[in-house]
Amino acid sequence: MKRIAQFYKISQNEFLKTGTIEDYEQIKLPLRATAGSAGYDFFAPKEYSLLPGETAKIPTGVRVKIEEGWVLKIYPRSSLGFKYRLSLDNTVGIIDSDYYFADNEGHIFIKMTNCGDKPLVIEKGKAFAQGIFVEYGVTFDDNCVATRTGGFGSTDKK
Predict the structure, then answer these.
(1) Domain that residue 60 falls in
(2) Bridge partner list, 109
(3) Domain holding 127: CATH number?
(4) CA angle, residues 129, 81, 46, in degrees to nearest 5
């Protein structure tokens, strides 16, 4: 397997903008459950309860340094999507390699909605989303030299 990325916790100061010191100390970095798993499980830093139709923006406390030419795609865990119709609000989360250098330290947030008809509790420390690294290419005539500073929607503000 080619190794192309490394997960890190964001700084305590950055996390305290959206969470507590207790939650920060309990952050678990994403892991694969088995050697054959493509996805790295993301774990809830605290408990979230979602009634049908409710949304939660979950600050993971995690950032990832990715080699150029790769992207991290975020999806709900298959079991939660199947049992509860839990879905990402942006369908698929895209974490670009330059997001690591963003003003918020590349803090990965995952916004999810319970689209099902029964309440869902995401327990603290339990896996709720998964990330898969994918290689990508660019066009022959690509001349992009812009750099990122922010997170959601920042690249279309140039």
Answers:
(1) 5-137+144-156
(2) 59
(3) 2.70.40.10
(4) 40
The residue whose two tokens read 């929607």 is 153
Token duo for residue 94: 């895209």
Burial 34-51 (b: 16+ CB within 10 A, else e): eeeeebbbbbbbeebebe
- Residues 21, 102: Cα–Cα separation, whole Å: 22
Which pTM does this prediction carry? 0.90
Q: What is the CA radius of gyration of the chain?
A: 16
CB-CB contact of 84 with 120 (8 Å): yes
Sequential pLDDT tens for the chain (158 residues) = 889 999 999 999 999 999 999 999 999 999 999 999 999 999 999 999 999 999 999 999 999 999 999 999 999 998 998 899 999 999 999 999 999 999 999 999 999 999 999 999 999 999 999 999 999 999 999 999 888 776 655 555 54
CA distance 116 to 50: 10
Cα separation, 47 vs 123, in Å, equals: 5
Number of domains in the chain: 1
Type of residue found at 156:
D
